[in-house]
Amino acid sequence: MSKIRSLKKDININAPLEIVFARMDDLSKIGMHMSNSSIMMIGSKLMLEQLPGPSQGLGASFHWSGSVMGMPSILLRQ
Fold it and tell me: pTM for the full model?
């Protein structure tokens, strides 16, 4: 039986809470690593499309499409 391991790291960000939250709430910024081919994405990349409505906060919707390891992938965030 193997044990589940986890890693935790705390950091201090020298910025107002509103600025930090706005950055974390913007998927076009926080998820950009998925739009580039990389080891983290197993050489694949996805395309991000913002759906109609707000770009952040309640009601924001994004659609990711592409393939990972040759398998079609579609992700929707609301």
Answer: 0.47
List the structure tokens of 66.
């592409």
Domain ranges across the chain: 17-77
Q: Assign 3-class secondary structure to the chain.
A: CCCCCCCCCCCCCCCCHHHHHHHHCCHHHHCHHHHCCCCCCCCCEEEEEECCCCCCCCCCCEEEEEEECCEEEEEEEC
Chain segment 5-22, per-residue pLDDT in tens:
888 899 999 999 999 888
Cβ-contact 44, 37 below 8 angstroms? yes
Identify any residues that bridge with 75 across adjacent strands, giving them in sequence order: 64
